[in-house]
Amino acid sequence: MLISFSDTIEGAQGYTPLGKIKAATGWHAAGADVRREGEWREAALQQLIRHAEDMQADAIVGVGYHVAETVGIEDSGVELQRIAATGVAVKLQRN
Questions:
Q1: What is the pLDDT of residue 75?
Q2: Could you tell me if 1 and 51 are in contact, meaning their C-beta atoms sit under 8 angstroms apart?
Q3: H helices within the chain, ranges in order?
Q4: Residues 6 or more apart whose Cβ sits within 8 Å of residue 42
Q5: What are the extents of the domains in the chain?
Q6: Which of 15, 40, 50, 54 could form a disulfide with 90 if both were Cys (CB 3.0 to 4.6 A apart)?
Q7: Residue 26: exposure state from Cβ atoms within 10 A (0-12, 13-18, ≥19)
Q8: What pLDDT is stored for residue 76 in this prediction?
């Protein structure tokens, strides 16, 4: 699976968008350990890749990350959040 954080794929002749996709991590304490942010981003990206594979995509373009949701302390006793990855699943054009 090719991944691009821009809207292009180097070396590709073009692509056909299949649809926007989104995936999120499990809940974790908000701001607890910024050293683990890379792990949470990777987990969200792996979920995003699975969604793209289910669509028989060749690549994902426009990949980005953001905090998907935050649950306040009053709901759980601890402020929780999830990291989301978003992008567009695409089918590469073949020559």
A1: 63
A2: no
A3: 37-54, 73-76
A4: none
A5: 2-92
A6: 15
A7: exposed
A8: 62
> 41: helix, coil or strand?
helix
- Whole-number average pLDDT of the chain: 88
The CATH fold assigned to 2-92 is: Translation Initiation Factor IF3 (3.30.110)
d(CA 68, CA 83): 5
For the stretch 34-43, pLDDT in tens is 667 788 899 9
3-class state of residue 56 by DSSP: coil
Whole-model pTM? 0.84
Per DSSP, the three-state class of 62 is strand
